[in-house]
Design a protein that fits this description.
This protein has helices at residues 35-55, 71-77, 80-111, 118-126, 133-143, 150-157, 172-197, 201-209, 214-225, 227-242, 246-251, 263-272, 276-307; strands at residues 4-8, 14-18, 58-60, 65-67. It is mainly α.
């Protein structure tokens, strides 16, 4: 209900002012623009995720399923290759993410300096990211051949006997990890370059005036202020390392034996054998492991970033 208020006006006149009206309810029209993205997200992520959780408790094929409860998970964790695959998964993820962070930072510092052909070198570093993982795996399988591979032939020229990169259990997993780093360090470098160029140059100029060395400027200015980029690279690299499958399968198929198996390759082998429910349970386990590692780590890194 609207109430009127009488106020004094010049020349003996009176004005009637209406009291403020109740605020209108906000229109829901802008929220309709979220609908297409919500439909895509629901169709491609939420529905498959919930379906995977459901079918992990069943024994299923393409035409029917039978509810068996936790049997798939019990059987999955009793697999002899699982412990080895789980250990290899964490080793692979930590090694690849650590090397990508360190090498990406160093390459970014180099490629933001005033050097010749800087733009060309940036393109060269990023180019492997664009290549197919399967193609890279096949090429490096040939290059790492112990008897005819170009890598061992090049080492032999300088008097070094190259190892059996992909057939020696001591080298197989790390050989694939090094190839993974070669392929993925370009993306880490680009993220670090974006973080470094956003740092105000006044900090480096002030440090130079104070007589700080290049290393001190890097350690006391670049590293702390590039922390958001570092957190991004750590999270993305670790997720990729824990979920890695295609490069490992293309190069070693988990061999020799089970020495380079990761959880994803164990899951795939179960799927090949026709144990669909068991492989689905493995996918759920992998999803929970990645979530349990990445979510707390992301919270810690973001909290440190805010505090900084």
């Amino acid at each position: 209900m609207t109430t009127n208020t009488t106020v004094a006006a010049p020349a003996g006149r009176t004005l009637t002012a209406a009291a403020p009206k109740r605020r209108q309810r906000k229109s829901s029209y802008p929220y309709w623009f979220y609908l297409p993205a919500a439909l895509v997200y629901t169709t491609l992520f939420l529905v498959p995720t919930f379906a995977s959780f459901f079918f992990s408790f069943t024994r299923w094929n393409l035409t029917e399923f039978t509810w068996i409860g936790m049997d798939n998970f019990v059987q999955f964790f009793s697999e002899p290759a699982l412990l080895k695959g789980l250990t290899n998964t964490f080793i692979y993820g930590v090694v690849t993410s650590t090397l990508k962070v360190v090498l990406g930072m160093l390459l970014a510092v180099l490629l933001t300096a005033q050097i010749i052909a800087r733009g060309y070198l940036r393109s060269v570093i990023f180019f492997p990211v664009l290549l197919s993982s399967i193609g890279v795996g096949i090429v490096f399988t040939v290059l790492m051949d112990p008897s005819r591979g170009m890598i061992n032939e090049a080492l032999a020229v300088v008097g070094i006997e190259g190892p059996k990169w992909l057939t020696d259990p001591a080298w197989a997993l790390m050989s694939v990890a090094f190839v993974d780093v070669w392929k993925g360090v370009g993306l880490a470098t680009v993220i670090f370059i974006a973080g470094i160029v956003s740092i105000p140059q006044e900090y480096f100029e002030a440090a130079k005036v104070d007589g700080a060395s290049s290393f001190k400027s890097f350690w006391n200015i670049t590293v702390p202020l590039a922390r958001p980029a570092t957190a991004t690279v750590i999270i993305l690299s670790l997720i990729g390392g824990l979920r890695s499958f295609d490069l490992i399968w293309a190069m070693t198929k988990g061999g020799p034996g089970f020495t380079s198996d990761v959880i994803a390759s164990v899951i795939y082998k179960q799927y090949q054998a026709g144990f669909y429910g068991l492989s689905t349970a493995g996918n759920v386990v992998l999803f929970l492991i990645v979530t349990a590692v990445i979510v707390p780590l992301s919270m810690i890194l973001n909290r440190k970033e805010v505090e900084a």
